[in-house]
Amino acid sequence: MSTPRSQVSQLSEIPEYELDVTMRRVLIPADELAARVRELGREISDTYRGSVPLLVSVLKGGVVFLTDLMRAVTIPHHIDFLQLSSYAGGTMSSGTVRLLSDLGTNIGGRDVLIVEDIVDTGLTLRYLLKQLEIRQPRSLRVCTLLNKQSARQVDVSLDFVGFDIPNEFVVGYGLDYEEKYRNLPYIGVLDL
Ligand code: PRP
After folding, report:
1. What are the extents of the domains in the chain?
2. Does the annotation mark 68 as catalytic?
3. pTM exceeds cut of 0.85
4. 54 lines ligand 1 (CB under 6 A)
5. Of 120, 155, 164, 176, which one is the catalytic site residue?
6. Is residue 128 a contact partner of residue 80, using CB atoms and an 8 Å limit?
7. pLDDT tens-digit profile of 128-165?
8. Is residue 111 lining ligand 1, measured as CB closer than 6 Å?
9. For the structural domain made of 30-167, what CATH number should be given?
10. d(CA 116, CA 65)
């Protein structure tokens, strides 16, 4: 028996996500994220045309953004991952950044683009820039989906920014609270 048309259209809609906390509001809906990621993909492609850049995703939060962004980047490129942690699942930065796992790629002489989900205090990014600069890439730039400028504790320079956001704790699209809600297709503010 074939599926009725009405059910087919429902299947392509965003499913209802089950939360065990209250979502105060959606800050950036899924369609706005998708549109901005496409624009960033174009900007990045224009910047690196003629090179094969290495997109470095910072796990775990950055992985959702990277997988969408890389499909919006239309020039050939490589990807790699490293894992850092400073929040240990909570809402406050511990202030101490730890390298949990390193890149598999030698970045010496490469055009490297760090792909972050969010720059908040800036401590994670400052640590990462220091770690990667030592390895002498040809260029080192930063793309972040979200920039929480008002929470900044150290100065870091950003080359591509998706959205400037207010100083609120956000989840979704890779960002977690106690390791949960990374699966949400939008950026939301929890009622904690
Ligand atoms: C988050 C996020 C950034 C960092 C930004 O990672 O993914 O890497 O915090 O915060 P900062 O600017 O205040 O340093 P987190 O340590 O929570 O790890 P996760 O990506 O595994 O969730």
Report:
1. 30-167
2. no
3. yes
4. no
5. 120
6. no
7. 999 999 999 999 999 999 999 999 999 999 999 999 99
8. no
9. 3.40.50.2020
10. 8
